[in-house]
Amino acid sequence: MTALPMPETQAPWPARDALRITGVRPIVTAPEGVPLVVVRVDTSDPGLYGLGCATFTQRFHAVAAAVEQHVGPMLVGRHPADIEDITRMVHYSSYWRGGPVLNSALSGVDQALWDIAGKRAGMPVYELLGGRVRAAADTYLHAGGATVEETLDHARALLEAGYRHVRLQSGAPGIGHYGSPGSRGGYPGSPYPDGWDVQRYLRDVPALFERARSELGPEPGLMHDVHSRLTPKQAIVLARALEPYRLFFLEDPIAPEHYDRLPEVCAAAPMPIAAGEQIGSVADAARLVRDGGVDLLRLHVSAVGGLTPARKLVALCELQGVGTAWHAPADVSPIGAAANVALDVTSAAFQIQEGHVYGDAVHEVFPGTISPRNAYLYPNQAPGWGIDLDETLAAKYPPRTHLHERWAAGVRRPDGGIEAP
Ligand code: MG
């Protein structure tokens, strides 16, 4: 059934043709266990619709409700070509701006409108953005393990598979590890024996990279993700300890609550600092780029509102000499991953793309999902994103509460105090 337009949300200018948005709805599916949120925008042309990524795995119900109840109804009756006006209208309509829930909802409709624009033009989105400046986006994957040996074995397997860059994370006592297994009961005399200890972390990470550089050789680009655990001064201590191992970048050294001190960390660190995936505001991201807070901006594109705001930040990065390295592990849908690649291949600011190799179930639900070829991600040549969504198959993978929420609730220090996960 076609929903009725809201008169107040219609454009005060005549549309070039009779095409109109007739419906907007969220689709949540979890083919790999991670709840992916996609927005479908339908039009009055029965064969013409767009898909956009609105994935916020830890609050997917809230995003779906925002799309269905608040954002979607405002778009019905609008011409889908008014992307800039529609994104501004959605952004300002809640009065209180942004945040990852509303921005993810906005991202879903924004990217769906770009998909429609590409389909109408018969062009992939990267051509609408001005065309390519490179053939493909170089990508890195994560190597992790319970021990240094396991992590390095994993890294060697990725390098043998053709990857030129790997992120290294290694396990240690405590359950608060990202990207590597932790172990329970590491601090038996402590109030919280499963805790994560910052001093042990500050000793272990340089030891991991010393072994990595000596065993993997001088060529591979090596990264490490701190996951926002350190104070500004601890971050500087770690960055200096890692200097001999020539990291490609050090990621998220401090928590987003302390980003006003990221410029001093950035200035003192001998390697490039990459940060930004937890930012839910375009203005916050712009301040980091403008004030020397980041060498590589790595946004979660749906968390800042989609392709339209992200491309403005890409332009700012290019003008400021800051690189981009977008966030994209398993909690970005294939549509969002395609949007990342469209930005990557159309800007000189691009440096590297976080990669994820989707499994068969995702490829079946999302025909056209991009896979790395020799560690490069090539944009699809089909119009729009070149990716579809099989809703019948998607329904076979209903979302469950994301386990990340329960895991994060248990990330504490050995003394029992909560640690930023
Ligand atoms: Mg990260």
Structure report:
By secondary structure, the protein is an alpha/beta fold. Helices cover about 35% and strands about 15% of the residues. It has helices spanning about 60-75, 85-95, 100-120, 125-130, 150-160, 200-215, 230-240, 260-270, 280-290, 305-320, 335-345, 360-365, 390-395, 405-410; strands spanning about 20-30, 35-45, 50-55, 135-145, 165-170, 220-225, 250, 275, 295, 325, 355, 375. The mean pLDDT is about 95. Bound molecules: magnesium ion. Magnesium ion (MG) binds next to loops.
Q: Number of helix segments? A: 14
Mean pLDDT: 96
Assign the CATH superfamily of the domain at 128-383.
Enolase-like C-terminal domain
Major beta sheet summary: 9 strands, mixed
What structural class results from the helix and strand content?
alpha/beta
- CATH fold annotation of the domain at 128-383: TIM Barrel
What is the tally of beta strands? 12
Primary descriptors:
421 residues, alpha/beta, 9-stranded mixed β-sheet, 3-stranded antiparallel β-sheet, 14 helices, globular, binds magnesium ion
